Every structure is written in C-alpha cells, then in structure tokens.
Amino acid sequence: MSLYKRKKIWHADFSVDGQRFRQSLETTDWRQAQAKKKELIVQASEGKLAASNQRFSRLRIAEALDHYLEDRSVHVLPRSHRSESDHAKALRQHLGTLPLTRIDEDTVVGYIRLRKEAKISNTTVNMEIGILRRVLKRAKRWHLVADEIPRLPERRDIGRALAPEDFAENGAHRGNNGNSGR
Q1: Which of 54, 64, 74, 133 is at a distance of 20 to 30 A from 102, taking alpha carbons?
Q2: Which of 155, 135, 157, 133 is nearest to 146 (CA)?
Q3: What is the pLDDT of residue 53?
Q4: What is the rounded distance in angstroms from the CA atom of residue 28 to the CA atom of residue 25?
Q5: Could you count the other beta carbons within 10 Å of the beta carbon of residue 135?
Q6: How confident is the model at residue 127 (pLDDT cuts 50, 70, 90)?
C-alpha cells in the first residue's frame, strides 16, 4: 500500500483481497491524500470500487451497452432482450461517446430532462435508466449517483383484467354484458 506523486498529484496503489487498485487521489496535499486513500480502501473492501484491471469501467457507454446486452441475452427471453436493445438505443444516441467514468448525477439528470422534453413517458425513461443503472453497477459506479436519481412516477390508472368474481358483481358473465338476450 503506497502513495506516490505524478506531476504533483498524489496517487494510491493498494491491494484488497488479492485485487490491485491504482487511482489518482486528485489532490496535492499529502494529508488529504492519506484520508482519501483510507476511503478508497473501505470502498474497495465493500465492493464499490472497480479494480485497476477491470476494463469494463473504462469503456464508453456505447461499448458498455454492447457488452451488457450481449451478456444479458443468455439470462432473458428473446423478447425481453429485444426490448432492452430498443430501450438502449436512446442511451447510445445521447450518451454513447461518454466514458463510464464520466457519468455523474448531473449527466443522468440531464438525460432524464432531455427525454422528458421530448415527451417520452415516465415508464420508458425509467426503463432506460434501469439499463444505465445495471451497466453502471457492473462498472462499480452506480453508488456514486444512486442517491441523486429519483424514479419517475408511473401511471397506475390503466385498466386491469377482471377476475371471475368481478364479472359476477358487474352482471357481466361469459361475454353477455349483463343482458339476458331477451
């Protein structure tokens, strides 16, 4: 476990459970560097920090979505995979060139605002953010934005299928809509 400088900026190099972590501490102050290194070690031990050899977290959104969808296809039905691929198109279009490491709460909130200005339903936006959430979780970066990203309210007033007992209460049974036909 060491601290070292590169161009006057402190960096940390340490291992947790056999995984090596190397990261800039983004400070020139040695005391701040020590405190930040301790925080990083805690995050790494909790599984909230990507190891330096984990290349997924260094990908751009478009590439990460491709990997995610490819890996996800073996866990879901083809129709679900097609649906996720369709919802990922908007993410790819608006955020595709950004590296995962550059995604922060302002980026995600800005994306939500952009989609709402385009009159996209809350359910669709929630599905898109769900895909982004799973990609960022895989990159060990969701915890950085999770508290700031609210789930949009979805409509609950859409009709539902009637149960047999509801048919009897409404006088509609077996398609005769309460009319006896006489």
Answers
A1: 74
A2: 133
A3: 42
A4: 9
A5: 24
A6: very high
Count of other CB atoms within 10 angstroms of residue 28? 12
Going along the chain from its start, the domains and CATH numbers come out as: 2-53 (no CATH), 56-148 (1.10.150.130)
83-105 residues labelled b (16+ CB within 10 A) or e (exposed): ebbebbebbbebbbeeebeebee
pLDDT of residue 110: 93
- 102/110 Cα distance (integer angstroms): 13
CA–CA separation, 182 and 129 (whole Å)? 55
Residues ≥6 apart with Cβ < 8 Å to 114: 94
> What does the pLDDT look like over 72-90, one tens digit per residue?
888 889 999 999 999 999 9
